[in-house]
Specification:
By secondary structure, the protein is of the alpha+beta class. It contains 11 helices and 10 strands. A 6-stranded mixed barrel has the order 2-3-8-5-7-6. β2 and β3 form a beta hairpin. α1 packs across α10.
Length: about 350
């Protein structure tokens, strides 16, 4: 084998320009594919975890009026894990000389939320009467801060100055700058102070985990709707979101998978480049191969050195591309999580994802 290894070393010296280009192409395409695979794995895991931690409602019933007694009664229905009353209305907030949309959520009890929860980040909790909590992304859209003030106009009220009591993180909502809407949270007393009538018109339910498919949830909600109507609470609207999926998870998956597709195509093209390089090398060395056979090299001996060359190129590409993919995946996932408004608690990539990249 010694002459064969010497020949391989000589081939590498003679073809080093082409081989360096091949290694670079393979490493770059592997880094691109690895970045997207690593990011996809982390993003799907973390967006699901963030969304589940909000205890998302399986369904929201819009009624004329939701009393505390009705909430308690619904909670006794088999299959219902938690029930809560809320109210959501579209108000306006003054931004310079223009009025910007304000989606105002009225919470019954900030201290005992069980459905569609959110967490405080700074400021007062719960918000005092006459103040609002804002979703944290509002500070980027309007350059707001805790302790500042807003001019708010409710649908049936007059413009009023409201103090910002603090910021919260609601992982179930898209960022304010993406929707061009400010999200605010207040008590029923604050709603009354803004000129609106008191009361709640949404009944939000979290069902038993056994109801984990849309057909099962729809069937149960129809049963609950019938129960409500028999007791004099006609349902004006029933909203059932995709079970266990963040509202923006679908677009995120589509974009990330398209990038994975581009990375895979780039890797295939790099593989074609490597095959072409080896093929060109073989075409130039027909006489050398004949001489090797003359001095005793077998077909397997000769095949071995060319396979060793290809394998060496692959190993070098892995040593460059896989760590580079991991390094780039970190800021990429941070950017996507900021765009969709969720928090990444761990950037760890499962070993099987890295192993897959090495095998490829």
């Amino acid at each position: 084998m010694n002459p064969l290894w010497k020949k391989l070393a000589g081939d590498i010296r003679l073809e080093r320009g082409r081989l360096i280009l091949t290694v670079f192409a393979l490493a770059l395409s592997l880094a691109g594919l690895g970045t997207m695979l690593d990011a996809y794995t982390v993003l799907i895991r973390e967006i699901g975890r963030n969304y589940r931690e909000t205890s998302p409602a399986a369904a929201t019933f819009e009624l004329e009026n939701v009393s505390a007694e009705l909430v308690t009664a619904v909670r006794q229905i088999p299959g219902v894990e938690a029930s809560e009353r809320r109210r959501a209305l579209d108000a306006r907030v003054l931004d310079g000389k223009d009025w910007r949309p304000l989606r105002l959520f009225i919470v019954d009890d900030f201290s005992h939320m069980q459905v569609n929860t959110f967490v405080a980040q700074e400021g007062a909790w719960p918000p005092p009467t006459g103040t609002l909590l804002l979703e944290r992304t509002a500070v980027r859209l309007m350059n707001l801060k805790t302790g500042g003030t807003l001019t708010v106009r409710a649908p049936n009220g007059t413009p009023q100055t409201v103090r910002i009591a603090g910021l919260v993180h609601d992982a179930g909502l898209a960022p304010s700058e993406q929707e061009r809407t400010i999200y605010g949270y207040a008590t029923e007393a604050t709603l009354h102070a803004l000129g609106e009538t008191s009361g709640f018109d949404e009944l939000r339910l979290r069902l038993d985990p056994s109801f984990n498919t849309r057909p099962a949830i729809v069937a149960k909600c129809q049963e609950i709707a019938t129960w409500l109507e028999k007791r004099g609470h006609p349902v004006h609207e029933l909203r059932i979101p995709p079970p266990g999926r963040h509202p923006h998870q679908g677009p995120m998956e589509a974009v990330t998978l398209s990038f994975i597709g581009f990375g895979a195509m780039a890797l295939i093209l790099s593989a074609v480049l490597l095959a072409t390089t080896i093929n060109a090398l073989l075409a130039k060395q027909v006489k050398e191969i004949a001489i090797l056979k003359t001095i005793g090299a077998s077909r397997s001996n000769i095949a071995f050195i060319y396979c060793a060359l290809a394998l060496g190129i692959g190993v070098i590409a892995v040593l460059i591309g896989v760590p580079a993919g991991l390094a780039v995946a970190y800021p990429f996932t941070q950017q996507i999580s900021a765009l969709i408004n969720f928090t990444i608690s761990s950037h760890a990539v499962p070993p099987h994802v890295l192993f897959f990249q090495v095998i490829v």
